[in-house]
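CORE FACILITY INTAKE
Project code: CF-77B
Contact: R.S. (postdoc)
Sample description: multi-component assembly, two entities in total
Requested service: structural model of the whole complex
Turnaround: standard
Below are the sequence entries exactly as provided by the requester. Do not edit them.
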Amino acid sequence: MSEKEKILSASDIVVQFQLRNKMLTAIRHVSLDLYEGETLAIVGESGSGKSVLTKTFTGMLDSNGHIESGTCMFEGKNLYDIKTDAGWEKIRGKKIATVFQDPMTSLNPIIPIGRQITEVIEKHQGKSKEEAKAMAIQLMEEVGIYNAAGRFDEYPFQYSGGMRQRIVIAIALACHPKILICDEPTTALDVTIQAQIIRLIKDLQSQYGYTTIYITHDLGVVANVADRVAVMYAGQIIEYGLVDEVFYDPKHPYTWGLLSSLPQLGIKGSELYAITGTPPSLFDVIKGDAFAPRNPYAMEIDFEEEPPFFKVSDTHYAKTWLLDPRAPKVTPPQQVTTLHERMQEALIKQEKQEGLI
Amino acid sequence: MSEREKILEVKDMAVTFYSGKKAFTAVSDVNFDVYKGETFALVGESGSGKTTIGRAIIKINPTSAGQVIYKGKQINCKLSEEENKWVIRNIQMVFQDPAASLNERATVDYIVSEGLYNFHLYKDEADRHQKVVNALNSVGLLEEHMSRYPHEFSGGQRQRIGLARAMIMEPDLIIADEPISALDVSIRAQVLNLLNKFKAERGLTQIFIAHDLSVVRFISDRIAVIHKGRIVELAPTEELFLNSLHPYTQSLISAIPLPDPEIEKAKKLIIYDESKHDYSVDKPSFQEIKPGHWIWANQKEMEEYRKIVK
């Protein structure tokens, strides 16, 4: 990974929101590097800050939010120095594009599908109407719209949810962005459609050469798409590493909790592991490790002092005191240590059955 | 299987919605039994009709054909007030969105008590209070929560309130419509455990409506897969996962994201092609291919399925 080039480098970001006269700290000192050509999955529960973090890369924070500190280097410039909409327009959509969860809100319901794609091409690439139309139809074909020319003049409501999301992807790719941020792009879709959209984003990646940030709460989706994973909790990244490292050798108790509570790993008839309690309020000042009150392995220091990142490997880091040499040795829950074994077992069982057929 | 008590029977049920002169049949040919104490899952994608089936059972959606029989008594017909009360009291529903299904202006105390008030299921005020406290405790909430309003709770806690409201009626059957879809991963497990607890401790029968097969595999004893308003396959859970026959079921199973990078990245997707079914002459019906395993197929398909079934 080290020989790969950093395409985006964010460091020490703090994002705050003014809400009902109170200050909410949504992102608490997050640093993140993105390497060219990779897919980085950011996983976390709602409110963990995964969307807010990536919104700062395109200047799309809600108006009551601001970047309190930090830098985000992209193509030699600090993105956070951009203060005007005109400045952001050179980046947003053109260099860094976003695909959001709900395709219906990203598309304008009263403008034909084709026009919404050509608009972007004409604006950002200065093509003529005819050229833009030809390019748009080609894009529509690439994202898997059958009879693209015939459906060019149809409106969003005439498309199914999955097809709409394909169009949103087509619009995002129209300017050949360097970075594609996929913010829960399949959460609103059915599983069978979800699988197809995930595959589409992956297939087009080799063709268009974009780097992907994939935001999701679904660890199954992460396993599918990611080269690297960052796990977020209460406005911080608490563990990151290569996808295999995070799934097969996770170090943070929150990651353990997330993996253990998956019903896929549950044993029928016995209780499913559940993380107790709820995430902390981000209005409050958080002392120590934010996960400590819910952490069955918490030590005294967890309530006193925030842990630093401990190095597990060159690519794998976790922010937990359990990795401190002075900490007692703790073995992760069995669901976590036997994850691969158990998933494989289930698969073999399935294949055996099919083999008998 | 046969000696187990059937708590609910659904026979050839259909639900048709009318809009002026236009009619739209949302579900048809729905056949299944639910046995006492089991968790029976209705699984399908959005628009498949799974919720419509659940709602038709408790008469939120009127049926246009077939029978719904609860404890030997048909309930999808005109019932006396008393019979209606009996049905409402014994079959309770838990909804997907706990924010939308709770009265924002009522306290938890009132929300949970409402059924008791409606049916006068309490001796005196002290008895009612105790019942509410018990119901809240059983879902992991506390007495002090009684005076609070729904907006003061997190999503997972709200779903617990919804569950307490249903459980206080001491129902025989709960219809849970996507009860965990709106919840975060770590909170889902808590609610799933609660449902399992009620099943183990009180023998609660459940109809669990969901789109997520991995959740359904964990929680249910039997599964019915619904596609475009029809049950296409019905079998015990592991039988369905290991020996699914209908191509739609297979595509649905193949699409479940597995939390294991190596396996997930190597996975093959099965894409369902509806046009492969030729039902122009040879008409399909819902048939039992082996004990407990049902499938929607025509005669030609049945012959093929029989060759591969074990």
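Facility notes:
- Chain B has a mean pLDDT of 91.
- The two ends of chain B are 19 Å apart (CA to CA).
Invoice: internal transfer
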